[in-house]
Write a structure and sequence with these properties.
Length: 74
Amino acid sequence: MKRFLVALAGVLSALYLLNPTLGLFELLPDNIPFVGNIDEATATMVLLGALRYFGWDVTNLFMKKTAIDFGKKE
């Protein structure tokens, strides 16, 4: 049941981010200063959390990777 609810939350957040209603339905209109994009940020966090729950951790996709140092002595 938990897997189903996490998957449902992920699908709903992905649909919200795809914006199939062309902006006719939004929880917070984007033209409100400072808070207009909070609903999209929340949907993004829910989608990333659902993906991480199922083993797809895309949060470190753009992290800086350390270079291999061949002169380093351990």
